[in-house]
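Re: that chain you flagged

S.,

Sorry for the slow reply, it's been a week of failed gels. I finally had a moment to sit down with the sequence you sent. For the record, here it is as I used it:
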Amino acid sequence: MKALRIGALAALFVVVIATSVSNAAQLPLSAPSMKSFAGPAACTTLTLTVTTPNNAGNTISTVVITGVPLACQSLALQLTVFRSAGIILATATTPATAAASTTTVTLNASVTPGNIIGVALTINGRGIKTVWVP
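Prediction finished late last night. Pasting the structure tokens below so you have them in one place:
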């Protein structure tokens, strides 16, 4: 009797699985329809120069970005100054760059220029190529 029940349950299981598979086989296949969002392109493909201002002391609290093209002027800016191993030394965020080809930004911490090995810059949320010139 127990074997009969197990056999009946197994047969029912096979029927349910077979029905599910056959129903799934009848579903239409179509290409994915995910929407994507492409934001605005970077304001420039040029490499901007980031350097220290004229500095008589051992530390700086501002940096100067030069070569800012017209398309990048007056846009939000975020700058990260880092040393070896990608360790962040300081950052700067402004709601808008200066309306000029040169803009000075204030860092959130004073840093020693000799410790800086690079900077990362975004303007209007897009990465911009930079070169650090101490």
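What I noticed first: Strands lie at 48-51, 60-66, 77-82, 88-94, 102-111, 118-123, 126-128, 130-133.

Talk soon,
D.
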